């Protein structure tokens, strides 16, 4: 304390602030008190809750650990830096938000599976709270989440198994998709938007019972708005850490523009479709998500039981299915084609397997999957190596919790670090290498590997896992059956480094699809 006192005296003298120096000398008691309160304030602002997992030593008020992280906002990179020192469980402050990383398969499994009743909540974050109002499936908690998730899973199961509704819808879409690629006649093009349209249309068919034409202006505006909205709220959005910045004039952080995009999507696409379904509801023709939801709402209202199945929740659930289901799967398709450009021998091996089992005369079906283990191994290796969901979605604990001897506060953001598992050399041996054979045994059959968790694990495991796997299998087999994908310039291949947004996506690239 004496040191600080002398230092202040020096500073005042250095700046020749005579008045202040005088004041300071005359009121030593008051000044000492002020210095003490200031130090206490700084200590209070910088202090961390006791017993939280280890992380950077000097946490600043307001900025948190952002200086020690040198402004890095990619959570995978942050976790890799921290793991060098702190291993499997570590923590970091982004602003005043505490992030806790779970960095190994065993620790994630222990949290999300063994302690799933505690670790399955979602944290409060600026963008997601604002956009979802914590309704729907992805960001809700407790009973509302349970009801939405149960309904969505049952409906997907109803469409996907026993009846072939889902496969028929995917086949129909792939037909349009392949036709557009064929029209390019081997000339180079960018598959990004086309792949979004194909995958988004499958969700549309499932949710609304209809697909959009690829040149439909409303569909195109919807995709534009979704893309710009997701880019803004994706990983690293500064408003999640400093929400007050939304008041900066000129909408610098795109707060207002995201709200406008969201309103457009709700008012022009989702709500009109719900209203139309309400008006024309016929319980003998229930073959899409909305009519199935309406049937369930009617059923529940007859029983008089309290329920969270209502129109507001339906709007949010539809948004969730589009947001969670479109970019993830379409990005994985783009990575697959990109890896084929880098590994033409792997593409040829897939083609040979497809020719042996299916030939060229019919569309691949999901029942062919067990007979195409190499194609399946390639898709698994793409899901591992491209790892589009990066660190996965954030979790939260339902109450202050002790885990592995550390304190996990209720409001901490918990990151089950999928990236750490999928790139762990202790598990994969040569995690950096693209090698589909790692998923096959010596008889050429698929090996199930527990640590293969691109869809996460536990109660919050990706709700669309089966649908995504079905889509990927049918898209990839049909594409390879119909076209050979070759680079525009074999000496200058598009990069395998991706860009971080809502998912980890390839940098836009051009490709040639030569009809077989
Ligand atoms: C390659 C494709 C996909 C990948 C890699 C993927 C990955 C993931 C991951 C890592 C999570 C977070 C799980 C957690 O919180 O622990 C998740 C959640 C979710 N996914 Fe997917 N996903 C994909 C496709 C889909 C599709 C096609 C749909 C929908 C139709 C979908 C719907 C959802 C939903 C609704 C959730 C939230 C589940 C909940 O909170 O209960 N996903 N996904």
Automatic annotation (TrEMBL):
Q: Does the record's keyword annotation contain Iron? A: yes
Q: Record's Pfam families?
A: p450
GO MF annotation: an example: oxidoreductase activity, acting on paired donors, with incorporation or reduction of molecular oxygen, reduced flavin or flavoprotein as one donor, and incorporation of one atom of oxygen
Q: Which Gene3D superfamilies match?
A: Cytochrome P450 (1.10.630.10)
Q: Where, in this chain's numbering, is heme bound?
A: 462
Does the record bear Chloroplast in its keywords? no
Which GO BP terms apply?
A: organic acid metabolic process; xenobiotic metabolic process
SUPFAM superfamilies documented for this protein: Cytochrome P450 (SSF48264)
Q: Look up the record and report any one GO term of the cellular component aspect.
A: cytoplasm
- Keywords, alphabetical: Heme, Iron, Metal-binding, Monooxygenase, Oxidoreductase
Name its co-factor(s).
heme
What InterPro entries has UniProt attached to this entry?
Answer: Cyt_P450, Cyt_P450_CS, Cyt_P450_E_grp-I, Cyt_P450_sf, Cytochrome_P450_fam2
- Record-stated family: Belongs to the cytochrome P450 family.
Q: List the protein's name.
A: Cytochrome P450
């Amino acid at each position: 304390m004496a040191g600080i006192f002398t230092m202040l005296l020096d500073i005042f003298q250095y700046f020749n602030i005579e008045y202040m120096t005088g004041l300071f000398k005359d009121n030593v008691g008051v000044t000492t008190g002020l210095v003490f309160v200031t130090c206490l304030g700084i200590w209070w602002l910088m202090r961390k809750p006791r017993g939280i997992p280890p992380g950077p030593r000097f946490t600043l008020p307001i900025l948190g650990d952002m200086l020690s992280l040198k402004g890095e906002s990619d959570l995978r990179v942050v976790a890799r830096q921290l793991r060098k020192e702190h291993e499997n469980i570590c923590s970091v402050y982004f602003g005043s938000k505490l992030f806790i990383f779970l960095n190994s398969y065993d620790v994630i499994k222990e949290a999300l599976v063994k302690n799933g009743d505690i670790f399955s909540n979602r944290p409060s974050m600026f963008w997601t709270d604002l956009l979802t109002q914590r309704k729907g499936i992805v960001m809700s908690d407790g009973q509302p989440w349970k009801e939405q998730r149960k309904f969505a899973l049952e409906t997907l199961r109803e469409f996907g198994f026993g009846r072939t509704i889902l496969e028929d819808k995917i086949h129909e879409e792939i037909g349009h998709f392949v036709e557009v690629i064929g029209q390019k006649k081997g000339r180079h093009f960018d598959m990004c938007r086309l792949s979004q349209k194909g995958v988004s249309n499958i969700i549309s068919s499932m949710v609304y019972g209809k697909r959009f034409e690829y040149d439909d202006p409303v569909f195109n505006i919807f995709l534009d708005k979704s893309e710009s909205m997701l880019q803004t709220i994706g990983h690293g959005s500064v408003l999640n850490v400093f929400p007050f910045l939304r008041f900066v004039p000129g909408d610098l952080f795109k707060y207002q523009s995201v709200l406008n995009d969201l309103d457009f999507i709700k008012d022009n696409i989702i709500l009109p479709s719900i209203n139309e379904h309400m008006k024309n509801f016929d319980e003998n023709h229930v073959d899409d998500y909305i009519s199935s939801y309406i049937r369930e709402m009617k059923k529940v209202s007859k029983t008089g039981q309290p329920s969270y199945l209502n129109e507001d929740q339906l709007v949010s659930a539809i948004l969730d299915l589009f947001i969670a289901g479109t970019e993830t799967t379409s990005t994985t398709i783009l990575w697959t084609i990109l890896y084929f450009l880098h590994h033409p021998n792997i593409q040829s091996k897939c083609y040979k397997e497809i020719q042996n089992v299916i030939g060229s005369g019919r569309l691949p079906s999901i029942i062919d999957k067990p007979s195409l283990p190499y194609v399946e191994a390639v898709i698994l290796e793409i899901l591992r190596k491209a790892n589009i969901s990066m660190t996965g979605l954030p979790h939260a604990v339902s109450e202050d919790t002790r885990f592995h001897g550390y304190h996990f506060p209720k409001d901490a953001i918990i990151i089950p670090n999928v990236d750490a598992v999928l790139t762990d050399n202790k598990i994969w041996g040569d995690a950096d290498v693209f090698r589909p054979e790692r998923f096959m045994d010596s008889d050429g059959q698929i090996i199930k590997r527990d640590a293969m968790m691109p869809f996460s694990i536990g109660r919050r495991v990706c709700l669309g896992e089966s649908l995504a796997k079905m889509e990927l299998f049918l898209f990839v087999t049909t594409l390879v059956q119909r076209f050979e994908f070759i680079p525009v310039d074999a000496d200058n291949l598009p990069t395998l480094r991706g860009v971080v947004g809502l998912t980890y996506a390839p940098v836009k690239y051009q490709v040639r699809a030569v009809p077989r």
